[in-house]
Amino acid sequence: MIATVSQGLVVVAGVWLIGLGVFMLVRPRQALVALSRMGGSPSVHIGEMTVRILAGAAMILAAAGSRYPLAVMVIGGFLIVSAVVLLVLPRRWHAGYSTWWASRIPVPAVRLIAPLSGVMGGALIWVVI
User: Fold this and answer.
1) Percent of the chain with pLDDT over 70
2) pTM, whole model, 2 decimals?
3) N or C terminus of the chain: which is more exposed, having fewer CB within 10 Å?
4) Measuring CA to CA, how many Å separate 56 from each of 37, 44, 59, 60, 109?
């Protein structure tokens, strides 16, 4: 039961990454605005970290039944550790970092990297199904 639920959550994360790629391709300026707002408020910051932790935990729990258990477990662990680090550091650092990147990434680059998000989402789904 836990494996099925965690596998489903990983699939949802993959679908989210595909949707993010489409959003970046169609609305690159709005994608940069969204990036600049990460960490901008406590609710956005904690919400983002909660989603990272849940996705990471789901990946760890689904890893054993995946095509590449070690890779899925390592990526899941990275998501959890990075979220905990961002929760411990001052939120304004996270907000400043996302704003810094959003102001430096050119709009055409957002469109260029959009397919990578879709491919990674598809790969994530493939690896756990």
Assistant:
1) 100
2) 0.90
3) N
4) 22, 18, 5, 6, 27
**3-class SS of residue 106:** coil
Full residue range of the structural domain in which residue 111 is found = 2-128
Burial of 60 (0-12, 13-18, 19+ CB in 10 A): buried
Q: Which of 84, 124, 100 is nearest to 36 (CA)?
A: 100
Quote the radius of gyration of the chain (alpha carbons, Å): 15
How many separate helices (H) and strands (E) can be counted in the chain? 6, 0
The number of domains in the chain is 1
Given this model, what pLDDT does residue 4 score?
87
In 3D space, the residue among 77, 74, 76, 81 whose CA is nearest the CA of residue 7 turns out to be 76
Residue 54, SS3 per DSSP: helix
Confidence of residue 77 (pLDDT cuts 50, 70, 90): very high
Tens-digit pLDDT profile for residues 30-49: 999 999 998 889 999 999 99
**Cβ proximity of 114 and 28 under 8 Å:** yes
